[in-house]
Write a structure and sequence with these properties.
It is a single chain. By secondary structure, this protein is α+β, with helices and mostly antiparallel strands. It is about 35% helix and about 20% strand. The protein is built from 27 helices and 31 strands. Strand 22 (about 515-520) and strand 23 (about 525-530) form a beta hairpin. The N and C termini lie far apart (about 95 Å). The relative contact order is 0.07. The N terminus and C terminus are likely disordered. The protein binds fe (ii) ion (FE2).
């Protein structure tokens, strides 16, 4: 076990750092020279009552300070905006003693309700920064508005504490200074610097102490390390804090008698660790301590608390961890292992192909999990606290008030999403993502970082974990047992206790993501819940980085009808403006990867919500001021509301562009190209020109259309990008397209008839492209215009016809898959293309023969004209060849068209004959 360093050692370095870095300390720095110590950790106030407040600071003794205790003076002024002279209201003395890690707490009473105060500490020449607070009014007096922010989960290593400072900025901009701020837990994390975050994930290095926290001095040192953060200090100085712990203030997933992250054999008794952690918590946070810190074993050290804000609201802060909570019904790891055991042997299968035995076993796992979750012996609040909550809500709740409840966990019964059963409009995207994850070699994109790479690198780990997620959602197996979802019986009692005349708003944290939804008891709405994203700790985006945030949110909403909105991708906080008739909450997002440097750049409002006194939740809405919208986000776009993202009509964009391009090319193409062109050779036309110029123009127009179609198909991004970048598709850089196209070509090479065949195909393609350029340059206008319009009409008619069946949907799915570079089912697209060709006319039948030169073998046709066609190798995939071999219906249509043009009955028979080793095939049209 590592020995923690003395606080003095850390303080000396911190002092140097503070002098250089912290702007709030700059003016005082000079005055500190020669002082016996410093106020390095700022000031804070907390637990406000109508006439009392807890003031906090920490005095850091200078090196070699001989004393074990220092006398610290505190001073307090009334802070009125229009008051030029500040009159000292109160002053007093307190002790900064080594016994309490030199922290100072003063519970100042006898103050004037509703008054704004400023305060400061002094010790010798050293002066602390100033803090301020406004006291609430007593419950009997009217109060019109309240402004506050809600935070949770601040892991130092994962990022900067920008959320803290952003709350100050935002409230100032709204001219609504914070009345208080809530911290719903995980204010610190207990892990060492090699775990959560791992070194490779660490954004802010230098965690102190570097080892995991077990003993009092270690917890103190971690608190001190966090408190050096200037953004936390800024928020602490601006308004009172009201806090309750979650698990990481002690150890991960803790409960009354233990924790997931506690190992008695090496870390000693859990009780000792718990009391050490709680003592450090109370020493370093501005909580009201009405018990003996030196005798922590004599509980209660902190109970549930109530705060009144005039007649407007009362706030209940609940304790859900260490007073009454029983151990979790199960652990996510254990249930995931059970699911994995069922899937073992089926990892290579797509979920849609899971055999029946898997479903049977999954149902068993689900039943067992439900039995554990429903166990009434699993408690979280305990009877005493439950009774207290019910009493507050019923007896002391008054009409016209709001009941605010702060507690650490998510109360909503969030069921794992069933990604395979998403609402209409999302499933095509989902199908693509599943394909990406269930087939090797597919392109992978991390939606958090934007990085792309081959899925093989992360394939097994990602795919197997994701298949477990899939199974959990599909078979409704709950994975979260540490939140309220693991304490079902107690949850029901808790929600019943909220019933009363006062509309209730519940705040939660812990999940690191944002959730807004309705809470019901016995099918009646009893509260609206808002759970905030973390200050820095990573959310679901780190677990499933391959899923677009909009899809993730949509999946959760689909699985949980009472969930109104979710965001799984941002860090930040919740900002509330409470009025008599309206509760306005805004989800504020921050870019925690960089420090704020005193600006609001990189901060944005994701969504706003209103709740009326009837508990009607409306939103997401736009935010109150435009300057905090996406435009002020410093180039970082916030998550879009899920449905707007997912309902983007992506497939229609390329389709419309394709139709437009076809029309344009047809318009540009002229009567005929020069005789003997490569296109003529390719299509087997006679040297010296054609007898029917318009047909030749059609053939050239056709080539252009097909080649453009092909170029367009391969030029869309070969990854799952269309969720976020639909309009960038046609603008994709050419070099990327070329690289992708060449890789596709290389993939196809092994299937070719050999290098000679490949060269033939390349040569054909080259000649086609040359023709397009030549034809376009020599084209006339009239025939091209007519043909272009005909082509557009045919395209639209085919699309409409296909839309009436499933053909269009299938083809679009295939097109999307193709655009991502996935192996896709070619048949739907080939079928649609064949139908289009049939409608486009006779020239296209000739192209059909180019696509499927063996097409007409065995058909009953009499031919007078012989066409020499390349039979093998072909440029086109097998499905296209097969489809165009079935131009039987096209034969009838061709007959009809030719009859129409010739004015006489015509019977077509195509006869093909393989001529042998030269690869040439001779067909006859009669
Ligand atoms: Fe957390």
């Amino acid at each position: 076990m590592n020995t923690p360093r003395a606080p003095e050692e850390e303080s000396e370095k911190a002092a140097e750092r503070r002098k250089a870095e912290l702007p709030i300390w700059g003016p005082v720095g000079a005055a500190m020279a020669g002082a016996v110590g410093y106020f390095l950790h700022g000031v804070a106030s907390g637990d406000p009552l109508a006439n009392a407040i807890v003031l906090w600071t920490r005095f850091t003794p200078a090196k070699k300070a001989p004393k074990k205790a220092f006398l610290v003076r505190w001073l307090l002024w009334i802070q009125e905006p229009n008051r030029k002279e500040r009159k000292r209201e109160l002053t007093g003395k307190a002790t900064a003693a080594e016994e309490f890690d030199f922290t100072v707490k003063v519970d100042v009473s006898g103050l004037q309700p509703g008054t704004r105060y400023a305060y400061r500490f002094e010790c010798g020449q050293a002066k602390s920064p100033e803090g301020e607070f406004r006291l609430p009014l007593p419950a009997t007096e009217p109060m019109a508005t309240l402004s506050y922010a809600v935070f949770s989960c601040a892991n130092r290593g994962f990022g900067n504490f920008r959320a803290y400072a952003a709350a100050v900025e935002r409230s100032r901009e709204l001219s609504a200074p914070l009345d208080f701020w809530l911290h719903l837990g995980d204010y610190i994390y207990e892990y060492g610097d090699t775990r959560y975050p791992a070194p490779s994930e660490t954004v802010v290095p230098g965690l102190k102490p570097s080892e995991e926290l077990v003993h009092l001095q270690q917890y103190r040192q971690r608190h001190a390390h966090y408190r050096l953060d200037p953004e936390l200090q800024r928020l602490s100085a601006s308004a009172p804090m009201i806090s309750i712990w979650d698990d990481h203030e002690v150890a991960n997933d803790d409960f009354k008698d233990g924790a997931e992250n506690h190992h008695s054999e090496t870390q000693g008794a859990f009780e000792a660790r718990k009391l050490a952690a709680l003592r450090a918590y109370h020493e370093w946070l501005p909580t009201r301590v009405e018990f003996d810190l030196t005798n922590m074993s004599a509980a209660p050290w902190l109970r549930w608390r109530r705060f009144d804000f005039g007649s407007l609201a009362m706030l209940l802060m609940l304790e859900t961890r260490l007073l009454a909570r029983t151990s979790q019904a199960a652990t996510e790891q254990s249930v995931r292992a059970e699911i994995a055991a069922v899937l073992n042997g089926a990892w290579a299968l797509s979920p849609s192909a899971w055999p029946g035995r898997i479903e049977k076993k999954m149902r068993k796992v689900q039943s067992a999990v439900e039995a554990k979750r429903l166990d009434p012996r699993k408690r979280m609040l305990g009877d005493t606290q439950l009774a207290w909550i019910a009493a507050q809500a019923k007896a002391e709740g008054r009409p016209g008030r709001w009941l605010l409840v702060g507690q650490p966990q998510v109360v909503q019964e969030l069921m794992s999403p069933n990604f395979q059963d998403l609402p209409r409009g999302t499933s095509p995207h989902w199908a693509d993502i599943v394909r990406n994850l269930t087939k090797r070699g597919a392109l992978y994109r991390n939606y958090t970082t934007g990085d792309e790479g081959e899925a093989d690198f992360v394939f097994s780990e990602l795919r197997n974990a994701f298949l477990v997620d899939l199974a959990a959602g599909r078979f409704r197996i709950q994975l979260n047992f540490d939140s309220w979802t693991g304490y079902v019986a107690e949850r029901r009692l808790f929600l019943q206790s909220l019933r009363g005349p006062t509309p209730a708003i519940v705040y939660g944290g812990d999940s690191h993501n944002a959730w807004a939804g309705i809470l019901r008891a016995d099918n009646k709405t009893v509260a609206v819940e808002f759970d905030g994203m973390s200050v820095t700790s990573p959310g679901l985006e780190s677990r499933r980085p391959f899923l677009p945030p909009g899809l993730e949110a949509a999946a959760w909403q689909a699985a949980n009808p009472d969930l109104a909105w979710a965001d799984t991708s941002w860090r930040g906080f919740m900002l509330v403006q409470l009025g008599l008739d309206n509760h306005r909450l805004e989800y504020m997002a921050v870019d925690a990867s960089t420090p704020s440097r005193g600006t609001s750049e990189g901060t944005s409002c994701l969504a706003g919500f209103d709740v009326g006194r009837d508990l009607q939740l409306s939103g997401p809405k736009s935010c109150r001021t435009a300057s905090w919208s996406a435009a002020a986000f410093g180039g970082i776009e916030p998550s879009m509301p899920s449905w707007r993202l997912l309902s983007w009509p992506w497939p229609w964009v390329p389709l419309a562009l394709l139709a437009s391009l076809t029309a344009l090319v047809g318009f540009l193409l002229g009567r005929r190209s020069s005789s003997g062109s490569s296109s003529s050779r390719l299509f087997g036309s006679r040297p010296g020109g054609y007898k029917r110029p318009s047909e030749e123009a059609e053939a050239d127009g056709l080539q252009a259309s097909v080649v453009l179609f092909s170029v367009f198909s391969i030029s869309v991004p070969p990854c799952s990008r269309p969720f976020t970048e639909p309009l960038s598709l046609p603008l994709r850089p050419l070099k990327e397209t070329r690289r992708w196209a060449s890789s596709r070509w290389a993939e196809a090479a092994p299937r070719s008839a050999g290098s000679a065949g490949q060269q033939e195909r390349q040569e054909s393609a080259r000649r086609l492209l040359e023709d397009i350029v030549g034809v376009v340059s020599s084209a006339g206008i009239e025939a091209g215009a007519v043909r272009g319009l005909q082509a557009l009409r045919a395209t639209l008619l085919t699309a409409v016809e296909a839309a009436q069946s499933d053909e269009l949907r299938e083809a679009l799915q295939a097109l999307q898959g193709l655009s991502r570079g996935e192996p896709v089912e070619d048949a739907p697209l080939a079928r649609l293309l064949r139908r289009l060709f049939q409608r486009l006319g006779s020239t296209y039948v000739k192209l059909g023969q180019f696509i499927a030169p063996a097409a007409s073998a065995g058909r009953r046709c009499r031919c007078r004209k012989t066409l020499a066609l390349r039979s093998s190798p072909t440029l086109f995939p097998a499905a296209y060849v097969r489809e165009f071999q079935c131009l039987g219906s096209g034969c009838e249509r061709l007959e009809a068209m030719l009859e129409e043009r010739a004015g006489t009955p015509i019977v077509i028979r195509v006869v093909t004959q393989q001529t042998g080793g030269d690869g040439l095939e001779h067909s006859e049209l009669a």
